Amino acid sequence: MRDRILVVDDEKEIADLVGLYLENENFTVFKCYSGGEAQKIIREETLDLAVLDVMLPDLDGFSLCREIRKEHNYPVIMLTAKGEEMDKINGLTLGADDYMTKPFLPLELVARVKAQLRRYKRYNGGGEQEEGILVHSGLVMNIKTHQCTLNEKPLNLTPTEFSILQILCQQKGNVVSSEELFRQIWKEEYYSKNNNTITVHIRHLREKMGDSFENPRYIKTVWGVGYKIEK
Questions:
Q1: Cα–Cα distance for residue pair 224/13, rounded to 1 Å
Q2: What CATH topology corresponds to 133-229?
Q3: How many Cβ atoms from other residues are within 10 Å of residue 153's Cβ?
Q4: Which sequence spans correspond to the domains of the chain?
Q5: Sign (positive/negative) of CA torsion 161, 163, 164, 165?
Protein backbone atom coordinates (compact mmCIF):
# COMPACT_ATOMS: atom_id res chain seq x y z
CA MET A 1 0.00 0.00 0.00
CA ARG A 2 1.34 3.42 -0.96
CA ASP A 3 2.06 5.92 1.79
CA ARG A 4 -0.24 8.94 1.70
CA ILE A 5 1.36 12.36 2.12
CA LEU A 6 -0.19 15.80 2.52
CA VAL A 7 1.77 18.70 0.99
CA VAL A 8 0.58 22.21 1.84
CA ASP A 9 2.10 25.36 0.34
CA ASP A 10 0.42 28.47 -1.04
CA GLU A 11 3.23 28.77 -3.61
CA LYS A 12 1.72 26.46 -6.22
CA GLU A 13 5.04 25.90 -7.98
CA ILE A 14 6.64 24.59 -4.78
CA ALA A 15 3.71 22.34 -3.86
CA ASP A 16 3.53 20.94 -7.40
CA LEU A 17 7.29 20.35 -7.58
CA VAL A 18 7.41 18.61 -4.19
CA GLY A 19 4.33 16.58 -5.16
CA LEU A 20 5.98 15.48 -8.40
CA TYR A 21 9.16 14.32 -6.65
CA LEU A 22 7.14 12.39 -4.06
CA GLU A 23 4.88 10.81 -6.68
CA ASN A 24 8.01 9.68 -8.55
CA GLU A 25 8.94 7.82 -5.35
CA ASN A 26 5.58 6.02 -5.43
CA PHE A 27 3.83 8.08 -2.75
CA THR A 28 0.19 9.12 -2.96
CA VAL A 29 0.18 12.91 -2.61
CA PHE A 30 -2.57 15.31 -1.55
CA LYS A 31 -1.57 18.83 -2.65
CA CYS A 32 -3.20 21.86 -1.05
CA TYR A 33 -2.57 25.55 -1.66
CA SER A 34 -4.40 26.87 1.40
CA GLY A 35 -4.95 25.96 5.03
CA GLY A 36 -8.67 25.49 4.50
CA GLU A 37 -8.13 22.87 1.80
CA ALA A 38 -5.59 21.10 4.00
CA GLN A 39 -7.91 21.12 7.01
CA LYS A 40 -10.51 19.23 4.98
CA ILE A 41 -7.96 16.60 3.90
CA ILE A 42 -6.69 16.18 7.48
CA ARG A 43 -10.21 15.53 8.71
CA GLU A 44 -11.37 13.26 5.88
CA GLU A 45 -8.33 11.29 4.71
CA THR A 46 -6.04 8.72 6.31
CA LEU A 47 -2.52 10.14 6.08
CA ASP A 48 0.99 8.87 6.85
CA LEU A 49 2.85 12.20 6.88
CA ALA A 50 2.26 15.93 6.38
CA VAL A 51 4.51 18.62 4.93
CA LEU A 52 3.21 22.02 6.10
CA ASP A 53 4.31 25.48 5.04
CA VAL A 54 4.22 27.87 8.00
CA MET A 55 3.01 30.91 6.04
CA LEU A 56 -0.40 30.35 4.46
CA PRO A 57 -2.97 33.00 3.45
CA ASP A 58 -5.84 31.74 5.59
CA LEU A 59 -4.93 29.11 8.21
CA ASP A 60 -1.21 28.89 9.00
CA GLY A 61 0.90 25.77 9.31
CA PHE A 62 1.01 26.04 13.11
CA SER A 63 -2.79 25.78 13.29
CA LEU A 64 -2.75 22.77 10.97
CA CYS A 65 -0.05 21.08 13.04
CA ARG A 66 -2.06 21.72 16.19
CA GLU A 67 -5.14 20.17 14.59
CA ILE A 68 -3.20 17.09 13.45
CA ARG A 69 -1.79 16.51 16.92
CA LYS A 70 -5.26 16.47 18.47
CA GLU A 71 -5.95 13.11 16.81
CA HIS A 72 -2.85 11.80 15.04
CA ASN A 73 0.80 10.89 15.68
CA TYR A 74 2.04 10.64 12.09
CA PRO A 75 5.15 12.73 11.29
CA VAL A 76 4.89 16.43 10.45
CA ILE A 77 7.61 18.34 8.59
CA MET A 78 7.38 22.15 8.68
CA LEU A 79 8.63 24.45 5.91
CA THR A 80 9.92 27.76 7.28
CA ALA A 81 11.28 30.98 5.81
CA LYS A 82 15.02 31.49 5.83
CA GLY A 83 16.30 32.63 9.21
CA GLU A 84 12.98 32.34 11.03
CA GLU A 85 14.30 30.50 14.08
CA MET A 86 11.13 31.16 16.09
CA ASP A 87 9.04 29.44 13.43
CA LYS A 88 11.12 26.31 13.91
CA ILE A 89 10.81 26.44 17.69
CA ASN A 90 7.06 27.10 17.54
CA GLY A 91 6.55 24.20 15.13
CA LEU A 92 8.51 21.79 17.30
CA THR A 93 6.64 22.95 20.39
CA LEU A 94 3.34 22.10 18.68
CA GLY A 95 4.56 18.60 17.87
CA ALA A 96 6.32 18.85 14.50
CA ASP A 97 9.04 16.24 13.98
CA ASP A 98 11.33 18.08 11.60
CA TYR A 99 11.66 21.33 9.65
CA MET A 100 13.27 22.55 6.46
CA THR A 101 14.24 26.10 5.57
CA LYS A 102 13.31 27.57 2.20
CA PRO A 103 14.78 27.41 -0.34
CA PHE A 104 15.46 23.69 -0.14
CA LEU A 105 16.40 20.87 -2.49
CA PRO A 106 13.39 18.67 -3.32
CA LEU A 107 15.57 15.54 -3.10
CA GLU A 108 16.59 16.47 0.46
CA LEU A 109 12.92 16.83 1.42
CA VAL A 110 12.18 13.42 -0.11
CA ALA A 111 15.04 11.92 1.92
CA ARG A 112 13.67 13.43 5.14
CA VAL A 113 10.16 12.21 4.33
CA LYS A 114 11.49 8.67 3.90
CA ALA A 115 13.50 8.86 7.14
CA GLN A 116 10.49 10.06 9.12
CA LEU A 117 8.26 7.35 7.63
CA ARG A 118 10.81 4.62 8.42
CA ARG A 119 10.93 5.70 12.05
CA TYR A 120 7.16 6.08 12.30
CA LYS A 121 6.50 2.63 10.82
CA ARG A 122 9.13 1.00 13.00
CA TYR A 123 7.33 2.28 16.08
CA ASN A 124 3.87 1.39 14.78
CA GLY A 125 4.33 -2.17 13.57
CA GLY A 126 5.30 -1.49 9.98
CA GLY A 127 8.77 -2.97 9.89
CA GLU A 128 11.56 -4.53 11.90
CA GLN A 129 11.11 -3.70 15.54
CA GLU A 130 13.23 -3.75 18.63
CA GLU A 131 11.77 -6.22 21.09
CA GLY A 132 11.16 -5.32 24.70
CA ILE A 133 9.38 -3.11 27.16
CA LEU A 134 11.12 -0.32 29.05
CA VAL A 135 9.91 0.32 32.59
CA HIS A 136 10.93 3.13 34.94
CA SER A 137 9.09 4.49 37.98
CA GLY A 138 5.56 4.24 36.59
CA LEU A 139 6.67 4.84 33.00
CA VAL A 140 6.13 1.92 30.60
CA MET A 141 7.30 2.05 26.97
CA ASN A 142 6.41 -0.73 24.56
CA ILE A 143 8.99 -0.43 21.79
CA LYS A 144 7.14 -2.91 19.59
CA THR A 145 3.77 -1.17 19.60
CA HIS A 146 4.99 2.40 20.21
CA GLN A 147 2.67 2.68 23.20
CA CYS A 148 3.67 4.61 26.27
CA THR A 149 1.91 4.95 29.61
CA LEU A 150 2.71 6.88 32.78
CA ASN A 151 1.10 5.65 35.98
CA GLU A 152 -1.22 3.55 33.79
CA LYS A 153 -2.40 6.60 31.84
CA PRO A 154 -1.54 6.79 28.11
CA LEU A 155 1.02 9.34 26.96
CA ASN A 156 0.27 10.67 23.49
CA LEU A 157 3.81 11.12 22.14
CA THR A 158 4.98 12.06 18.66
CA PRO A 159 7.54 9.71 17.05
CA THR A 160 10.35 12.15 17.87
CA GLU A 161 9.29 12.48 21.51
CA PHE A 162 9.05 8.70 21.78
CA SER A 163 12.55 8.36 20.29
CA ILE A 164 14.08 10.79 22.80
CA LEU A 165 12.41 9.11 25.76
CA GLN A 166 13.39 5.66 24.50
CA ILE A 167 17.05 6.64 24.15
CA LEU A 168 17.12 8.16 27.62
CA CYS A 169 15.45 5.09 29.15
CA GLN A 170 17.78 2.69 27.34
CA GLN A 171 20.77 4.64 28.69
CA LYS A 172 19.25 5.08 32.15
CA GLY A 173 21.82 6.41 34.61
CA ASN A 174 24.02 7.83 31.84
CA VAL A 175 24.06 11.40 30.55
CA VAL A 176 23.09 11.66 26.87
CA SER A 177 24.25 14.84 25.14
CA SER A 178 22.02 16.92 22.87
CA GLU A 179 24.48 16.12 20.09
CA GLU A 180 24.09 12.37 20.59
CA LEU A 181 20.28 12.63 20.74
CA PHE A 182 20.20 14.69 17.55
CA ARG A 183 22.49 12.34 15.64
CA GLN A 184 20.63 9.20 16.74
CA ILE A 185 17.24 10.60 15.80
CA TRP A 186 17.90 12.69 12.68
CA LYS A 187 21.02 10.88 11.43
CA GLU A 188 22.54 14.25 10.52
CA GLU A 189 25.55 16.34 11.49
CA TYR A 190 24.92 18.33 14.67
CA TYR A 191 25.38 22.09 14.83
CA SER A 192 25.05 24.30 17.92
CA LYS A 193 21.75 25.78 16.66
CA ASN A 194 20.26 22.27 16.68
CA ASN A 195 20.33 22.39 20.47
CA ASN A 196 17.07 24.38 20.30
CA THR A 197 15.45 21.43 18.53
CA ILE A 198 16.28 19.02 21.37
CA THR A 199 15.46 21.58 24.07
CA VAL A 200 11.97 22.15 22.70
CA HIS A 201 11.23 18.42 22.47
CA ILE A 202 12.48 17.86 26.02
CA ARG A 203 10.26 20.68 27.28
CA HIS A 204 7.28 19.21 25.46
CA LEU A 205 7.99 15.78 26.95
CA ARG A 206 8.17 17.23 30.44
CA GLU A 207 4.85 19.01 29.95
CA LYS A 208 3.14 15.83 28.81
CA MET A 209 4.65 13.84 31.69
CA GLY A 210 3.89 16.51 34.28
CA ASP A 211 7.59 16.57 35.08
CA SER A 212 9.12 19.50 36.95
CA PHE A 213 12.10 21.36 35.47
CA GLU A 214 13.34 22.40 38.92
CA ASN A 215 12.88 19.01 40.63
CA PRO A 216 12.48 16.48 37.83
CA ARG A 217 11.35 12.97 38.60
CA TYR A 218 12.18 11.67 35.14
CA ILE A 219 14.25 13.80 32.77
CA LYS A 220 17.11 15.60 34.51
CA THR A 221 19.16 18.34 32.84
CA VAL A 222 22.90 18.06 33.43
CA TRP A 223 24.05 21.58 32.62
CA GLY A 224 26.62 21.83 29.86
CA VAL A 225 26.45 18.08 29.22
CA GLY A 226 22.98 16.81 28.32
CA TYR A 227 20.05 14.89 29.79
CA LYS A 228 19.62 11.75 31.86
CA ILE A 229 17.07 9.54 33.57
CA GLU A 230 18.33 8.43 36.98
CA LYS A 231 18.48 4.72 37.78
A1: 44
A2: Arc Repressor Mutant, subunit A (1.10.10)
A3: 8
A4: 4-123, 133-229
A5: positive
The answer to which of 12-16, 57-61, 93-97 has the lowest mean pLDDT is 93-97
The dotted CATH code for 4-123 is: 3.40.50.2300
Q: Please, what sign has the CA dihedral across residues 192, 62, 167, 183?
A: negative
Q: Identify residue 149 by its one-letter amino acid code.
A: T
CA-CA distance, 162 to 160, in Å (whole number)? Answer: 5
Any idea how long the chain is?
Answer: 231
**Model pLDDT, residue 19:** 96
Q: Can you tell me the mean pLDDT for 101-107?
A: 89
**pLDDT exceeds 70 at position 124:** no
pTM over 0.70: no
Of 1, 102, 2, 3, whose CA–CA distance to 52 is shortest? Answer: 102
User: Do 77 and 100 meet the contact criterion of CB atoms below 8 Å apart?
Assistant: yes
Mean pLDDT, rounded, for 37-47: 94
Query: Exposed, middle or buried, 171 (CB in 10 Å: 0-12/13-18/19+)?
Result: middle
